[in-house]
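Exercise 7.
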Amino acid sequence: MSSLLLHGKDLVVWVTAFFLVGSVLLLARIIYNVFLHPLSHIPGPFWARATGFPSWYYATTGRRHIWLWKQFHIYGDRIRPEPNTVLFLNPGAHKEIYGMKSNVRRSQFYTAFRRKKHETSTFNTIDVKEHAWRRKILNLAFTEKSVAAACHFIVEHVDRWHDLFEEEKFNDNGWSSPLDFTERLNALIFDITGDLCFGRSFDVKEPGENPLKAVPNLTTEYMAFYYSLCRSPFLSVMNWLKPRGLDHLFDLIVPPTIKQYNKFISDSVTQRIAKQKEQQKKPEAERRQDIFHFLFEARDPETNQLALDDSALLAESSLLVFAGTDTTSVTLSCLFFCLSGNPQICDKLVDEILGTFDSADKIVYGPKLLACTYLNACIDETMRIAPALTCDLPREVLPGGLVVQGEHYPPGTIVGTVPWADTHNPNVYGDAEVFRPERWIVNGTNQEEVARLRSHLRPFSSGPGVCAGRNLALAELMITVARTLYRFHIRRAPGSTLGGGHPGLGWGCTDENQFQVLDAFVSLRQGPELQLKKRDA
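Solution. The predicted structure, written as tokens, is:
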């Protein structure tokens, strides 16, 4: 009995010693981060500079972009939201950080999106040379030829989407019942993405039972789960532990929805690869010309061999699903929210579309659509108001350091800019909270002003990380908006504020006329709640 008590006392001593040592080390780390760190002179919230936990907390709530925006208001155009991170609001900082010749690489943030050590894609590769090679291959799937071929699929889906609207119940005044447009847009864009990436529509937008209707929500849950890991203060420890058994533990503890999503992607790619190999037996002209076709057929410029094996195709296809779905649909959600809240702007856009095309069937991606000045301005203004990626794309400074806005930052420092804060910067945009497409239109006297504004708008990022599918995304946006407004009147459901701010959301989110998003690397949102009315033929 006495020996058991002795061992018990020893255990208490060891546990007490462990916590004392841990507390001393934590205190020492806090003192170093706040007072002795090379970045200690850069302002920011105390506990964020000390530990990074506030940044992680706001990432888990989806409000990190609002929190960072607030810090810029408090501390100026340079903040330290984490011990080793400096973020900038100054417009010139973006080019110095993300430019083609910037002495940086993608940070470890991106590697946390890997389920396994070797499951690499263009998105989660941080080695500069390997990323450049992967981008070169990915670009082969987004040529002018491939985008032109993809537009055929886009038109088919948008037209079918409109057919389904006409099956809705309409009241005596011709208006449909209220529709949550984010749900409808998610279904449309996901079906388009499925057709382009996997060779078949998933029919998520179709009525009736369909187990795949849950997949768009699985995509957002997938991003939200991994995003919270990516922003964790323990990221470097997790990345070190992953190939040492942590990845297997994650496989056991990840939510069932994440496992379901991973299985969906794997099964879809496997089926598409089999179909593509069958198509190779056909003449080129008879093969299905979707994005996956061009990705599958991409060849290494140096060896002329197929560039991507099956595992690489799986990784890149997973990237295309979330990059091609959420980023496009959030812009459409915000645009319809803003148009329904600004009837004069909506009428002006409708006049341009009806005056340019004789019928909805004539609205195709080409010179005539691209020449719609006001449509382009509305899309640019929407991507400013609600950027698809709201928070910083972190870059790690390489050996030799990096000069940003005249100050040298040592190797290992994480730097970046914050799209949400950039696009809401009153020093650049003046009335930054106002949806005003006219700011993007040259009227003969403001050419320099429009050029200045345009130099600060980077909805698809820039430099080595510029979005490969930006032309395809613009085609989806323009076709969807123009054909929808040609065929339907739209209005906000009476009394609906879905998608807008309210006082309960706190600082920066109180205006009901401002479209609200949650940050999960991609932007999550609800609304607007719209009613449609068929236009007279």
